[in-house]
């Protein structure tokens, strides 16, 4: 089992965030992975700015994938 957490720009709309998350999930499924759990977090303050952004959306996916 793997867990992937990534940060998305706070400037994206909810629709754009969902679309981006679907692209990531589609890639995992294309590689014969199985999504077990997903979480789209609320906008949260970052520990330090990334590309001049102090906030971001944290998205987490738990999935199974062959190790090769």
Ordered list of secondary-structure elements with their pairings:
Elements lengths: L1 E7 L5 H17 L3 E17 L2 E12 L4
Antiparallel strand pairs: 1-3, 2-3
Structure description:
The mean pLDDT is 93. 25% of the residues lie in helices and 53% in strands. The chain has 1 helix and 3 strands, in the order βαββ. The longest helix is centred in the first third of the chain and has 17 residues. 3% of the residues are buried. A hairpin with a 2-residue loop joins strand 2 and strand 3. With 68 residues, the chain is α+β, with helices and mostly antiparallel strands. Strands 1-3-2 form a 3-stranded antiparallel sheet, covered by helices on one side. The protein is elongated, with a radius of gyration of 13 Å. It starts with a strand and ends with a strand.
Taking the alpha carbons of the first and last residues, their distance comes to: 13 Å
Discrete helix count: 1
Query: Can you give the mean pLDDT?
Result: 93
**Would you tell me the structural class of the helices and strands?**
alpha+beta
* Strand order, sheet with most strands: 1-3-2
Rg from Cα: 13 Å
Helix content: 25-40%
- Using the alpha-carbon principal axes, give the shape: elongated
Which stretches of 5+ consecutive residues score pLDDT under 50?
none
% residues in beta strands: over 45%
Largest sheet: 3 strands, antiparallel
Record field, number of beta strands: 3
Order of helices and strands: EHEE
Assembly of the depicted chains: single chain
